[in-house]
Amino acid sequence: MVGEKRIGILTSGGDCAGLNAVIRASVYRAAGFGWTVVGLKEGTMGLLSRPLRYEVLRPEMFNGNILRLGGTILGTTNKGNPFHFPMADGSHKDRSEEIIGGCRELGLEALIVIGGDGSLEILRKLAQQGGLNIVGIPKTIDNDVGLTESSVGFDTAVTVATEALDRLQPTAASHARVMVLEVMGRDAGHIALYAGIAGGADVILIPEVPYSIEGIAGKIDRVRKMGRNFALVVVSEAVKTLGGTVMQKEYHGGEKRFGGIGDYLSERIASATGAESRVTVLGHVQRGSSPSWRDRLLATTFGVHAVDLIAEGKFDRMVAWSNRQVVDVPLDKAIAHYQAVELDGSLLKTARGLGIYIGDETTD
Ligand code: F6P
Hints:
Order of helices and strands: EHEHEEEHEHEHEHEHEEEHEHHEEHH
Helix content: 25-40%
Largest sheet: 7 strands, mixed
Number of strands: 15
Strand order of the largest sheet: 3-2-1-6-7-14-15
Mean pLDDT: 96
Bound molecules: 6-O-phosphono-beta-D-fructofuranose
Radius of gyration: 22 Å
Oligomer: single chain
Structural class: alpha/beta
């Protein structure tokens, strides 16, 4: 399928570091085939607008900085499911045909979708309905997309969270405090687990493993008996309270997001151990920085491979990382396989082997 061709690219869902590196790689590779790349603005929102919002992307537009740039030059959205789109009057409307119509109007022969599991699922449904040729690229700091060992943005988020622990450790030691770090990740505990091990945490709490305050207090007691005056606790945002409640914050407009479990735990740890405790909620700092070298490599490899798939006429696939190689997998299978932390995985074993308290299944 080499020849004159027009392909679209969009970023959808929460931003993360490395999205621009994917866009750059796709544009460079497509230029090698002589194709035109159309960058769609704000995910599917650009395709819902009339006139359509897009920009033709050419390699010469990139000033050498795009590889290093956080965020997405195209803009993105993690709201407004086109099959159930919230209208101004409070009702909801199926606007999927408008998006499909937008792709047709632009004459797109294929569409590269850079998204997490939710966006990939929505875009696949649109593609099936409208007969669109799509290729998916997994991106999410949560690293919960199935059939890939890593998604773009995860490594940078872990790096930021690890650095936060590096910064918390000296202040914790100076004041003999228990420092609680709340990290993102939605229902998957990957960020907390990776950063907690890398950053020397004493306690790591993830949604996949139940915990108790007695278990946490027991660990802090053992830390004290070893002669250490501080402790580091990392908690994933979706960890539930002891009563099973998910802590959420409601924003203006009614949108709810995880938040608050760090404060909840800090209070209980302080009262169970008598320690002074402080909380840091890392939040969007985890998404915003320049991508790590690993994310730049992953993003670049994914961008090139996605265009190669289009050249081969292979659609409804997702690029993925497996055993040191870029591969591609059926998009529906990747969407169907939600990747939480594996309970028998190496990292949980490592954490337990170190004596980190990671919940009540630990033998620690
Ligand atoms: O899915 C990525 C993510 O950063 C989650 O880890 C977090 O729960 C959520 O997005 C935050 O969403 P928002 O940017 O809408 O606050």
